[in-house]
From TrEMBL:
This is Uncharacterized protein. It comes from Emiliania huxleyi (strain CCMP1516). It comes from the Eukaryota. InterPro entries: AB_hydrolase_fold. PANTHER family: BLL0132 PROTEIN, PEPTIDASE S9 PROLYL OLIGOPEPTIDASE CATALYTIC DOMAIN-CONTAINING PROTEIN. Keywords: Signal. Residues 1-17 form the signal peptide. The keyword Signal applies. Gene3D superfamilies: alpha/beta hydrolase.
Amino acid sequence: MGVAALLLLAIAVRVHTAGWARADEATTLWFVPDDLSNTSSCDSLGMERVELYRAVLRVNDSYATGASEDVFFPLFSSHPLPGPAPDSDLEADPAVRVGMIFVHGALRNANAYFCEGSSAVASRGGDVKARTLVVAPWYGTEQLSAEEWMGRGNGTSTRWTNNSWIQGGDTRGKPKRFSTSFDIMDQLVRLLLDGAPLVDGAKLYPRLDHVVIQFAFRYSFFAALDTRVRYLLSDAATWMYFSPERPAPRCTLLHDSGVSHACVEFGEPDVEECTGYNNYKYGLGNLSSSESRYVERFADDQGLLDDAVELWADKDVRFVFGQHDTCNAQSNGYDNARSCFQRDAGCYPVSGDVALREMNLTGMTCCDTFPASNNNVLDVNCEAMLTGSNRLQRGLNHMNYLTHLYSVRRRHSLFAGAHSDYAFYQSKAFVEWAFPGELDLPHTKEQGPRVELNR
């Protein structure tokens, strides 16, 4: 499905489930945004009418802009969501006890993530599907009316510029800077954690026991600490570093260094042509230029930023990497494994000299997001290349960096696959960590308690 990064954030929370009405199948003329026009994944999983699961989250005016517009965040949901003004014919389903939120990657194909997430839940068998709420938010670049999204109602949707939402970016369009992607995720998580009052404020809707959310590593850093939250992250294009240190050059060689790759040396790089290497989103520098009101408040308060670094060690963050996610189609000198070349895949763009030479010899295309998509979107900017030359190497380097910084090894695992969200969702680690049972233990002995940083 074409993603720049597969990022799963699993959140163990308490939630409730009323206040949402599925769009009317009989009367709605569906508007299909470009991001959601590819339905092949849903069709293959028997969910040809995924549009029937469209829902909305009414967005708070997070920064008191005074805007009078009614703004909503579009998403897909398998069950009614909590809300302050539910439709009279919808009631909370007491059987629903678990929530899972799957967030798309760079292609913004929320429909595919909803279908594949729903499939992963259904594959568990038993009563898992009946007691699990599946939600897939859409951080789109198109601004829609409620009529276009739901077939009824008032208001306009949130939208972002390109993939600014991954970094917590401000909403675009009208009203401008009304909220941010991180504020909206906060709002959704709080809704699931704490429930919402009935119109008369008499009581809360029933709450769920656990929620699983797929979202960005950067959100796990800036979001408030909550011991009920678990983050499961996978195969990001880049990982944010909490200090100016980076892996030593010997840790970023231009080839697949394997699943046993380890880096034990970190320091500030000597870079004359990449002076902004530690700027946000790659590091914590220059936060004031983040174009995110959520992030900018950390730029103005060094104590708040220091606390975020300290508190991250208390967060239950786990990582799962594809052991074959090692392809790089755009860097000169990078030696791709034969598995990176696919016949008839038509992956684009390919600009690396070695990759182009191999393509000319074999007639096969070099792909760095296969099988998720045929879009080569691995970040090969100098800032990213300082952390590793492919996704697996960058992920393992970051695991070693976190151990270097906190003196505690973070839990991570591998799955037998390349850049594939479907393989990730079906992996042993995902099943063990995302579904109830494991979620009852927010921290493990292996992760340990919070410790002092290695300064």
